[in-house]
Amino acid sequence: xxxxxVMRIIVCVKQIAHTYARTGKELNRHYLSPEDAVFRxxxxxxxxxxAALRAGELAGGGRISLxxxxxxxxxxxxxxxxxxxxxxxxQIHMAAEMDPWQKSAFLxxxxxKIGADLVLCGKESLDxxxxxxxxxxxxxxxxxxxxxxxxxxxxxxxxxxLVERSAGRGKREIIRCFLPAVCSVDAGSIRLPVPTYDSMxxxxxxxxxxxxxxxxxxxxxxxxxxxxxxxxxPKAPSPPDSELNAHDRIKELLTGSRLEKKxxxxxxxxxxxxxxxxxxxxxNDFLNGTRKEPEG
Amino acid sequence: MLLTAxxxxxxxxxxxxxxxxxxxxxxxxxxxxxxxxxxxxKGFLGYLLGHGKILQNPxxxxxxxxxxxxxxxxxxxxxxxxxxxxxxxxxxxxLSLLSxxxxxxxxxxxxxxxxxxxxxxxxxxxxRVILPVALLLVIxxxxxxxxxxxxSIMETPLAWRTPIGGLLALAMPPxxxxxxxxxxxxxxxxxxxxAILPFSFMGHLISGSLNVVYRQKRPxxxxxxxxxxxxxxxxPVVGARSISDFTWKQLLDVQACVSCGRCDxxxxxxxxxxxxxxxxxxxxxxxxxxxxxxxxxxxxxxxxALWACTTCMACVDRCPVYASPxxxxxxxxxxxxxxxxxxxxxxxxxxxxxxxxxDVNGRGPAHREDWAMHLGVPHISExxxxxxxxxxxxxxxxFHPRYRETYGAMVRILQAAGVRFGILGREESCCGDGARRxxxxxxxRSLRKKNVAAFRKYHIRKIVCLCPHGYNTxxxxxxxxxxVIHGIPFVLELIKKxxxxxxxxxxxxxxxxxxxxxxxxxxIYDALREAAVSxxxxxxxxxxxxxxxxxxxxxxxxxxxxxxxxxxxINQLRAQDVAEAGVNLVGTxxxxxxxxxxxxxxxxxxxxxxxxxxLIEIIDSALERVY
Lengths: 296, 627
Prior knowledge:
The complex is a heterodimer. Chain A is α/β, with parallel strands linked by helices. Chain A contains seven helices and eleven strands.
């Protein structure tokens, strides 16, 4: 009996130190305090794991492996990704900072070594927002590349995989893509499952397989020379509480509260809210076209 | 009646069948895992003698009281003559009179139950169970008719000792044969009843009683700790994937359910037309135990029903035999989430935020103390503070714009009273109530571990918390060596000790909405009312459904993060209660209730909608301030 072909899928997952706030006071730490960042997997790469599960399901079985580059900084999150349905975790053991060209070159070497019919990655990462790795991977591997993949629709009768991608301005297109291929994944109809307890336990004991390459093998092509961290944003203090007496309100204002925004919260049923909104537009001359845009 | 050898043989057979049935019942409990439970015979006796829990529903409770005591007394009166005791005439006469009256009560009670069960619609009311009740009725009627015929033969029909029998004697022929037939019918029916007892609905006499004897002793608000196989050689049990994943006590709980439907009457999901019926959940598990115990429980309760539970504890509070449908639902949720990886889409973001940032909003620890800016709130570690209490803020207090105001009010009260308090700020994580009630026990445990470590770091001994969900979790589910007090009793104590004085009157007609996690779960009802009336000018009114019977706002059990797309909105049902009360202020003490009630009242589009405020805000607005 002929052995059934299992689709080999590799998902490139990037571990990032996601800075969600900037509350520090020290210039030399770029106004970052330790609580301002969390170590996590790039959310688009997490979606790529969901896409891999979907592609594997449509192919009637897939063997998913995760591939990460650099030191392990978000082990718990990596293991969580693994528990979503991947079977192996590979790490390209490199510490040096690299440009997208180098990153994609080393990833391509690892993919060649592991072997894959489909390579998936997120459309961009939250930390650098380069969005180049997917396309460059296609280039290094000499495989077709589809960006912004939202979903998979199974195998085409003419051969290849039917891929749905975002084509901008809400348009979606279906592309017939021949395997082996590289796809970058965008947020779309792919839903991420929740890892089960058993799979989490299993992934916890799964070893990370390390891949070593000579760091000098691929020279950089586009090197970052300077990075300017954004200036710290002062936190918006809470507005003065309109329930307070005048003295307390003034005290709050003097201690740095910002002015309360003028506005009215529409409440009630949907139709009454719509009525309220229309009457607001009429009252402020938005509907009859007499309102002048503020200058400057 | 004197027993013949044949009668004794019949009694023996009946008892053998009874014992076989008992063994079958025991086997069904033994399908479950081990669980250490303590016996409480004293509590059981109190429960039986007082019937207090069963009398929560007065009409049915009274009928049960008549049937229970009637049956027990009649049984004793049947056994006593077999010992050939000679009693003083007056005493025997009194016993006879009592027996007659009790028999009449038993008859009335049985007629009530029979009509209730016959008329019942299985979808909404108690289960249609007729045979055992009808058999009991035959036992009682045949006994009374035999007594009537006996009195008719003796020609002393209206003796004071047997008024009911005497009345019956007037209608009965003085036939010894008829009397013998009635006695035999009575005897045989009794034997059949005893034999079928463990096999039928009446098995609740055994399982229900045992369930009361072994009733849960852990705090009511504490969910069952999941057995994740922490000891070597132990397999983890991820919720209830099959019958054998329940403990023997949980299965006893299921067997004890008499399907009376009281749980459905109080369940906000059932009332608002959602597909959840706690009674049916217990029925489904009962059927599964009986018919196919090896099958998985995946399809036993639909997803819509499973996620409709608000964990308000109305079902637990109302159950006359201390059974807990909610406990089963929580284990089924755990099996769904941790066993199958299926979580409602709407809750996924919240859970992921908890995993990554430690708060439900995904704002992160760096923003956790933003609410306290310019309020002069110290961190617990502040030098020289020597804090008496830790003010637990929680996700609602830290991030919800509406509830931040309540915490601002609490800070002003504490400052006015001169209480030395501090917050954990960035070191505080979500208490984990939402994660646990949505079925993710590992996430809850990781949050608990983080918070407990912070409590230990700062040697916390006393915590004051405003959110009832956080209060319940910290108090009942953290198992820490610290005292947890809800904000309302704490502030009430400050008022009583004259640490703060309330000067400015609030001329309002106010009603209290009892949050489930304060009231039903932790028994705090009076403190809310006392705190409310301590504010000058407040005229307190009660809502139609109040205290133990208060309707949930619909936000608990993780429902705050799920869409309510089936049936009526629970918060609007509660808002209607408020509208009917004719008040212009609703006081509550929970961030979920505050939001849900405000939304519900707004949706009613009333001409003069009542304001919804946390009691802490009301007290703060009446506070005399020293400038």
